[in-house]
Specification:
The protein has 110 residues and is of the alpha+beta class. The protein has one domain: Beta Barrel (Lipocalin), CATH 2.40.128. The radius of gyration is 18 Å and the shape is globular.
Length: 110
């Protein structure tokens, strides 16, 4: 009886850790670009290890590394100087990030 109870508790604890830890949406993995006109190209790269890089016309600005996770349609990006949470949607080769009702559409480039 103790073994059964212990097994149930371990499985429950494991499910709790998964639920609280967030997940990485494998559909995000890769590179995405958005043309900003005179500001150049904005690029987001998501790696499968939960890290990424943000470039804003990489010839003029330093790339910004971040850690990322997703949960319930929300993308969380953790930069050295703060955290950004955005709703997101993926439709084929389009990634739409939604912040305060504004939509920013990126296109997959890899």
């Amino acid at each position: 009886m103790k073994k059964i109870l212990l097994t149930i508790l371990m499985v429950g604890f494991g499910l709790l850790l998964v639920a609280c830890g967030g997940s990485n949406d494998s559909d995000l993995i890769g590179a995405w670009e958005r043309d900003l006109g005179e500001w150049g190209i904005s690029t987001l790269t998501f790696d499968d290890d939960g890290t990424g890089i943000f470039y804003l016309d990489s010839t003029r600005f330093d790339p910004e590394p971040f850690e990322w996770s997703t949960s319930g349609g929300v993308l969380t990006k953790e930069f050295d100087d703060g955290t950004e949470e955005l709703e997101y949607e993926i439709d084929g080769s389009s990634l739409t990030l939604i912040e305060n009702g504004n939509e920013f559409v990126y296109t997959r480039v890899d």
